[in-house]
Automatic annotation (TrEMBL):
Belongs to the NSE1 family. It is found in: Nucleus. GO terms for molecular function: ubiquitin protein ligase activity; zinc ion binding. PANTHER family: NON-SMC ELEMENT 1-RELATED, NON-STRUCTURAL MAINTENANCE OF CHROMOSOMES ELEMENT 1 HOMOLOG. Its EC number is 2.3.2.27. This is Non-structural maintenance of chromosomes element 1 homolog.
Amino acid sequence: MDDWQPPLPAGYNDHNRAFLQAFMARGTLTLAEGKGIIAALQGVNPSDVTNQDFANAIKTAREAVEPLDYDIRNTRRQTGNGERIWAFINAHSDPTTALATIRSPDEVAYIKRLLDAMFETYNTPRMEVMAVGEAEALKVSRPPGNRESNAHTQRADNDEGGSQAAAIRALKHSEVLSLLSSLVAEGWLEKSQEGYYTLSPRSLLELWSWLVATYNDPDSEDEWQHIKFCESCKEIVTDGQRCSEATCTIRLHDVCEDGYWRTQQERKCPKCKTPWDGSHFVGERAITSRSGFQRGRAGRRRQSNVRGGEDEDGEEE
Ligand SMILES: [Zn+2]
Ligand SMILES: [Zn+2]
């Protein structure tokens, strides 16, 4: 549906308006949820609402919001059943406009540090975790400029600049934990069973351009980049499989792989031709599938075991 060019919405009515309001209030919709809203508005059973009815409702809503610079896009969940999700988004968002409109400047700054942790610190060529556990989320509670000896340089692309950075204060651990749980409740973050926080499908849709602009280098397209895309669906991979050749940049979602291999003659990386073993992971499994993690877990839970690779020695298989 990303291809069509919207004509002006014709016959826009109260049902269309109410559907859009319900959608905006939730931020995201699954097909079943969308049908439920349409059924309620029309006073029919959800089973009487067809996929085409839902597609029409989305199409009309999209036409209505487009002049306001908003959009409705859809993506599949990267994990589990791969369910498709529609999100109401501002495609020109950065973390301040998306996740942070009702946050304090200290919280906004924290969210940016959290994203840096996800996409830089814990996302290295060796370990593409792109997720943080609670311990890692707490580790960035303090801005780097808050200590007297500050070896870090402020990010050059931080539009707040250095003057405000000096005024940013650390969040207390209790504040970090409550911020994380509201970001989960609002659908910006997801928390896995193992306790790892990741960006939700909605955040990935909304922040797509910002993530690429912030964490990738447009001049080294062929090299390893922080943000990579699924060979099959072309969307961002924060949880999936990677080519077992360490320097190769090919990634695949678990939910995309069956369809993908059906279109290939052999189960080999399309770029470097290494046999695809399906056991090299992006996401929390980059940690949890490691033998060291499994051993440690047998004795005690080791959620604080997320390390981006900078101090992770001696456990490589
Ligand atoms: Zn995919
Ligand atoms: Zn490869």
